[in-house]
Predict the 3D structure of the following.
Amino acid sequence: MVFLRCEAVRWVDDEPQPGLVEVRFTDAHHQQWTFIEKWPRFGGQDLHPNSSYPLEVGILCDILDSASSPGTTDTVKISVAPWGVESLAGKVEFEVRADQLTQS
């Protein structure tokens, strides 16, 4: 399983259960993306309203394509759709740096 490393930045609300958190990451093009979802969708730790934010979390993703060129950072095209997660802008596919991914 491959996860995109992200940062949970705040607890949003207790409802709907089990609670919502705001999560962000910056893609390979330096654009920041925000998600607000139930906390269990962000693999890793058990999040609560009183957790010490920011915390590193992960979003399960599928690798769609990888590209590398001499002298450039490896980038990977991913989809975060496996757990039904999408950005606030409604986007599910992103190009990220390879070092933003981790395997579990």
Remarks:
- Strands lie at 2-13, 20-26, 32-38, 42-43, 55-67, 75-79, 93-97, 101-103.
- The radius of gyration is 14 Å.
- The mean pLDDT is 91.
